[in-house]
């Protein structure tokens, strides 16, 4: 029986844009596991598996329900040890926690500041109302104000990627010559940007952009199955 993966979607059910869901999608492909996607809009998340989690991704594997992208990756490695590893051992698992912490403190907030209105615009009317109310309450500003002058923030964001750029100058993936879950962690927010917004951020010649293109091509170009925003 295929694993069921609940993924966040926009107005179009095929527009799967969540960075955390993409981590899991590539993890499943990396492990060679069969899965089926269940698109879920923001306002339907409370209905997933009887309210199993306030956020997605969530997977159902037989009678097991697991939420949270990192916990799902740990579950997949523990449950399917004969399939390719996601962490390369305990040390890799702990280092992936660092990569996750760095990504969520550096990449995610910077991209959200530039793309939040574009994300709003790809949602259904009901989800737009929820998204605007919740984000404006949390941030204290209208979405339109948050993205004002976003072009001026790109340079600082690109500079913040220098540790990643330096690493990728000597290898194909964060995991080395082949990808690991750490790659999927960082791929997630860039795929989020690619699917949700046409705003250009990464120069083509940037080593980070070249790595991202390699990640898009992984597993029969899984990342390209959802088109980039026009």
Summarize this entry quickly.
Pfam families: GST_C_7, GST_N_2. With 230 residues, the chain is of the alpha+beta class.
SSE order, one letter for each helix or strand: EHEEEHHHHHHHH
Number of E strands: 4
Mean pLDDT: 97
The separation of the N and C termini measures: 36 Å
| Spans of at least 5 consecutive residues with low confidence | none
Strand content: 5-15%
Mind explaining what this structure looks like?
The protein has about 230 residues and is an alpha+beta fold. The chain has 2 domains: about 5-80, 3-Layer(aba) Sandwich (Glutaredoxin); about 90-225, Glutathione S-transferase Yfyf (Class Pi), Chain A, domain 2 (Up-down Bundle), CATH 1.20.1050. The chain contains 9 helices and 4 strands; from the N terminus they run E-H-E-E-E-H-H-H-H-H-H-H-H. Helix 1 links the parallel strand 1 (about 5-10) and strand 2 (about 35-40). Keywords: Transferase. It comes from Fulvimarina manganoxydans. This is Glutathione S-transferase. GO terms for molecular function: glutathione transferase activity; maleylacetoacetate isomerase activity.
Task: Itemize the secondary structure elements and their pairings.
Blueprint: E1 3-8, H1 19-31, E2 35-40, E3 58-61, E4 64-67, H2 69-79, H3 90-121, H4 125-139, H5 143-146, H6 154-160, H7 162-168, H8 181-196, H9 207-221
Protein name: Glutathione S-transferase
Keywords: Transferase
Domain GST N-terminal: 8-84
């Amino acid at each position: 029986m295929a694993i069921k993966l609940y993924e966040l979607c926009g107005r179009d059910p095929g527009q799967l844009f969540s960075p955390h869901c993409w981590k899991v999608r590539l993890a499943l492909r990396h492990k060679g596991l069969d899965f089926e996607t269940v698109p879920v809009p923001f306002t339907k998340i409370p209905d997933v598996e009887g309210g199993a989690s306030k956020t997605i991704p969530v997977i159902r594997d037989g009678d097991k329900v697991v939420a949270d992208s990192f916990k799902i990756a740990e579950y997949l490695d523990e449950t399917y040890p004969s399939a390719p590893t996601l962490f390369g051992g305990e040390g890799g698992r702990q280092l992936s926690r660092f990569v996750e912490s760095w990504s969520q403190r550096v990449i995610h907030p910077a991209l959200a500041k530039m793309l939040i209105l574009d994300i709003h615009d790809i949602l259904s009317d009901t989800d737009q109302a929820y998204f605007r109310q919740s984000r404006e309450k949390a941030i204290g500003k209208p979405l339109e104000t948050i993205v004002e002058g976003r072009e001026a923030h790109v340079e600082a964001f690109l500079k913040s990627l220098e540790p990643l750029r330096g690493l990728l100058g000597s290898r194909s993936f964060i995991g080395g010559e082949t990808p690991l879950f750490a790659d999927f962690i960082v791929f997630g927010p860039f795929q989020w940007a690619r699917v949700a917004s046409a705003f250009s951020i990464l120069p083509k010649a940037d080593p980070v952009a070249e790595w991202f293109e390699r990640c898009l091509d992984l597993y029969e170009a899984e990342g390209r199955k959802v088109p980039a925003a026009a």
